[in-house]
Amino acid sequence: MAQHEHVRVAVIGSGFGGLGAAVRLRREGITDFVILERAGSVGGTWRDNSYPGCACDVPSHLYSFSFAPNPEWPRTFSGQEHIRAYLEHVADTFGLRPHLRLNHEVTMMRWDGDELHWVIESANGSTVLADVVVSATGPLSDPKMPDIPGLADFPGKVFHSARWDHDADLTGKRVAMIGTGASAIQIVPSIQPKAAKLTLFQRTPPWVMPRMDRTISGAERWLHRTLPFTGTARRGLLWGIRELQVSAFTKHPDQLGLVERIAKSNMARSIKDPVLRAKLTPSYRIGCKRILLSSAYYPALARPNVDVVASGLAEVRGSTVVASDGTEAEVDAIVFGTGFHVTDMPIAERVVGAEGGTLAESWKGGMQALRGASAAGFPNWMTIIGPNTGLGNSSMILMIEAQLNYMADYLRQLDVLGGRVALDARPSAVGSWNRRVQERMKRTVWNTGGCTSWYLDANGRNTTVWPGTTAEFRKVTRTVDLSEYQVVRVPAQRDARPAVAEEVAG
């Protein structure tokens, strides 16, 4: 019988969520874990997204771990290369390299109810057994490519923003940019000066606010390095400002009118053509889709070598791209900025639970997980950045750290229970949590703002965003309530009978 590595915890992914989980495990005294990473290096989405102009839209000092402050951030909004370097630094500083298993793409995770562990198979043929799985694959990890008729026969370069082809020289080329999301508004200003012609296919215009980015001075960096509490104070101020904004998104969308006027002024400064301005003006409430930040996007669109087509891409005929409204353009390259599989994450197809079904099947009617972490029927399996943990205005690192608190207490509870044991979220608890979240979601701008966004799943339900403050989420994920779980133990005799589920008093 083949011998497989057996660990206490298997972490899937090495982006912010995975590395954060690994650091927290070590701080809890747990060293019996591995980090399974499909690529050849750490970094997650900040490794995969290396397109021109790639940067974060959350201030640097807030977009970093509280336990790993970086006084050397070079800009107020850091670029991809700096964030990736920060994650490499975290891996080194906290001694995570020995736990890393690079080039280990998980192809299947199957719960073994007899042995009470997960059997994790990787594409390289290896198998790991884990008592607990922490899935930190992230919602922005698998690019979404639309099924466009004729695309396979396009003679030029075709790639997604998250899989940028650095061998493709766009200088002097006719380029089609598909989509106007967060990636596209950074790509457009970066490639516009070198492209002979840039045609932007826009299904829905975004709201774009000015990007107040600047170089962080040497004096500021010295201050944060010498007096660390100043960096902590800066982070706290950035956090507090965003917490105060939450009610406008979640309870009083009418208060966003001022923000809307600022965004329109941002457009008016650069877009003088009334026809183009009409194309670029959204018809939905600001905040319904993610508010984008750029001071270079509108100036780029006003350049003579840029055309904005107010319609999505419908067909490709040879080197001709055709929009839904019939507009045609001859292009040499097509760049897709069409987002990711967020509400239909491919990893869910690879997780097989206690009843033999996949997580994707369990979530067919919409993703839901207890406190954004635990899915019913999937014992000792937790997800970081799970259903309804996303944010519309602040740093996801805050939400990740809150979930790491929950993960740590989850493991403590297993220790207290003793023996070979697992926790399985009760369907009633998951359902109750989800109903409360969805009820609160009804008032939010994401549901009432009049748009269709990637926050919504195929059924029109908002299964991605948290309808509250980060402080509130941290409070509800501080500890595990055992009454929301079934305690599962190894059967007394190894036969076909299922494991016993203990009732735990609330």
From TrEMBL:
Signal peptide: none annotated. One of its GO terms (molecular function) is oxidoreductase activity. It comes from the Bacteria. InterPro entries: FAD-bind_Monooxygenase_sf, FAD/NAD-bd_sf, Flavin_mOase-like. PANTHER family: FAD_NAD(P)-BINDING DOMAIN-CONTAINING PROTEIN-RELATED, L-ORNITHINE N(5)-MONOOXYGENASE-RELATED. Its EC number is 1.14.13.-. This is NAD(P)/FAD-dependent oxidoreductase. Belongs to the FAD-binding monooxygenase family. Keywords: FAD, Flavoprotein, Oxidoreductase. SUPFAM superfamilies: FAD/NAD(P)-binding domain. It is an enzyme of class 1 (oxidoreductase).
